[in-house]
Amino acid sequence: MRVLAFLDGTLADPDAPHIRVDDLGLMRGDGIFETVLVAGGTPRELRPHLDRLARSASMLDLPEPDDEAWQRATRQVIGNWIGGDEFALKLVCTRGIDGLPGAGPTAFAMGIPIDEKVIRARAEGVAAVTLERGIDPGLAERAPWLLLGAKSLSYAVNMAAVREAARRGASDVIFTATDDTVLEGPTSNVIIARGRTLYTPPATIGILPGTTQAAVFRGAERAGWSTKIEPLSTADLRDNDGLFLASSVRKLTRVHTLDGDRLPDSSAVHAELAKAYEDVYA
Amino acid sequence: MRVLAFLDGTLADPDAPHIRVDDLGLMRGDGIFETVLVAGGTPRELRPHLDRLARSASMLDLPEPDDEAWQRATRQVIGNWIGGDEFALKLVCTRGIDGLPGAGPTAFAMGIPIDEKVIRARAEGVAAVTLERGIDPGLAERAPWLLLGAKSLSYAVNMAAVREAARRGASDVIFTATDDTVLEGPTSNVIIARGRTLYTPPATIGILPGTTQAAVFRGAERAGWSTKIEPLSTADLRDNDGLFLASSVRKLTRVHTLDGDRLPDSSAVHAELAKAYEDVYA
After folding, report:
1. How far is A29 from chain B (nearest CA, A)?
2. Does the keyword Lyase belong to this entry (chains A, B) (predicted)?
3. Phi-psi region of A48 (alpha: psi -120 to 50; beta: other; left: phi over 0)
4. pLDDT at residue A70, as a whole number
5. Chain A window 79-138: which residues touch B at a Cβ cutoff of 8 Å?
6. Among B4, B18, B26, which would you mutate to test the A interface (most chain A Cβ atoms within 10 Å of its Cβ)?
7. Are A66 and A9 in contact (CB under 8 A)?
8. Where does residue A165 fall: left (phi above 0), alpha (psi -120 to 50 degrees), or beta otherwise?
9. What is the spatial distance between Cα A234 and Cα B83, in angstroms, rounded to a whole number?
10. Handedness of CA B20, B23, B29, B35 (dihedral sign)
11. Which residue in A has a C-alpha nearest to residue B23's C-alpha?
């Protein structure tokens, strides 16, 4: 089941049509979104998600999100959820209807069950491939019109990359830059463990600042780990004690196979970090 | 006024909602489109548009478009159009509803009036700016998952580039590659006239093959011009007798100002080529 609430707090039938064909979100992928994990009735990292929504809005020259309205829509969905203990909460905001700027953005929150595959991946890990993203790490700051690091609705490339992974016998992707820098996954951030230190690349290279990555870092620090935000190279993807993809819904997922090569077992490191992450919400 | 027909030939109210919030076209910009110019009741370059739609579908691993159904929907819209002599016909196809793959793609054709600004630009020309696209010309062939040259619904970057142009006092953009190669506009192809020869870059560098560009070339050849499809550099944008942007709805529009510099007057060349293009349909 799904639960749909518009930004004004109205509940609506998620199986009914609500969007006009000339909505710019549909016609141009012109809008922004967030995916929040709700667990035990509580949205995790809602503040960072709303901050990131505001950051994406700013990058796309969309109106600043109405924080209170988003929190209300979030409560509406959570209050009406009758599915499992955990679900994905999508927050979506488009530029609205083409040629009707006065109509304002189209905005809604929707609760969606978590895919079985994602639940399995949390426990079993995933096979990932590295794929060229074709950009250099300085591009995001030079060329803000490319929207690198904005969570826009224009995700066709992210989806195509996952299909390319499937063709290569994997289920996820790590994008790399032209200089061999590690970027991010199509829907996740990359984290590496080496000794008692966690590493992730800086958002300035044109990637999304990770809400779950930040939560994992916070949990790990409380558990005595050090954390570093610094550029990683593709060599770092193999030279480590654990390679992980972090995202709201998949939480911390370990990569067990990279570009077809089985990586050394990182289950113990993963278990410790997964616990540190859960302890943030205990 | 607008006219909306779904791919099954059903006419529908364009002001009513028809799309579910969980349509992947909306959630992920995951779909494809074409914009066809209809003039005097005839869709221009419909065959090349449908071929390009099929090419985009293939790049996005979408089902091959049903040619006959698209032609029927096109006829439906044209037959019910009561607006001006010329209008834009959008063909849109999304991957359909998330988690309901059996439901199949969401597909419709919609007639839309042509914006006054576009009509003015055809006559008066436009100011354009060059903007970095951050990719190299070999990337499209190396990395098909980046969907370069597919006309996907993920156009947020194209729209952001046009807003950047507006910030710089212009109304259009010419994207450039990392090696200073000329790519395309966000919604157009670049054509240069030099002497009696027209030039445009090859689609292999990761740009859309232009339906209008091809029609202009056909018309120009009939009028005694030579045409060449070869890489252009940013220097070529100034070293010419006319710089143009071609797209279905704007037809052939001359660029009168580039990066803030007024270019030599190309009105006469433009008039000759615009006539050669119209003569294709005479």
Report:
1. 4
2. yes
3. alpha
4. 98
5. 90, 92, 94, 98, 108, 110, 112, 131-136
6. B26
7. no
8. alpha
9. 57
10. negative
11. A26
Q: Please report residues of A whose CB lies closer than 8 A to that of B29.
A: 28-29, 152-156
- Token pair recorded at residue A187: 């829907």
Q: Which CATH class is domain B119-279?
A: alpha beta
DSSP H helical ranges for B191-266: 211-222
Mean pLDDT to the nearest integer, B248-277: 98
CA distance B144 to B60: 9
CA dihedral (A248, A214, A151, B32) positive or negative: negative
Picking from A172, A213, A159, A205, the residue whose alpha carbon sits closest to that of residue A189 is: A213
pLDDT tens-place string over residues A64-89:
999 999 999 999 999 999 999 999 99
- Of A197, A171, A185, the C-alpha closest to A256 is A171
Which residues of chain B lie closer than 8 angstroms to A17, CB-CB? Answer: 17-20
Q: Decide if domain A3-114 falls under CATH 3.30.470.10.
A: yes
pLDDT of B133: 97
- pLDDT, position A99: 83
Q: How confident is the model at residue A208 (pLDDT cuts 50, 70, 90)?
A: very high
Q: Provide mean pLDDT across the span B101-112.
A: 91
Contacts of B104 (CB under 8 A, 6+ apart): B63, B96
Let me know if the fold of B3-114 is the same as that of B119-279. Answer: no
Query: A90 near B27, Cβ under 8 Å?
Result: yes
At A1 the pLDDT is 86
Q: How confident is the model at residue A98 (pLDDT cuts 50, 70, 90)?
A: confident
Q: How far is CA B59 from each of CA A133, A167, B144, B214, rounded to the nearest angstrom?
A: 16, 14, 7, 21
What angle do the packed helices A267-279 and A211-222 form, to 10 degrees? 90
Which single residue is written with the structure tokens 């916070």?
Answer: A218
A145 and B163 within 8 Å at the Cβ level: the answer is yes
| DSSP structure string for A238-265 | TSSSEEEEEETTTEEEEEEEETTEEPPP
Sign, CA dihedral A263-A88-A94-A45, equals: negative
pLDDT tens, residue by residue, A23-33: 999 999 999 99
Task: State the complex-level ipTM.
Answer: 0.96
What residue segments make up the domains of chain B, in order of their start?
3-114, 119-279
Query: Which stretches of chain A are assigned E, i.e. beta strand?
Result: 3-6, 11-12, 31-39, 42-43, 86-94, 106-113, 126-132, 172-176, 189-194, 197-200, 226-229, 242-247, 251-258, 261-262
Residues of B in contact with A152 (CB under 8 A): 29, 156
pLDDT of residue B99: 83
CA A26 to chain centre: 20
Query: Are A156 and A167 spatial neighbours (Cβ–Cβ below 8 Å)?
Result: no
| CB contact set of A155 (below 8 Å; sequence gap of 6+) | A29, A186, B27, B28, B29, B30, B154
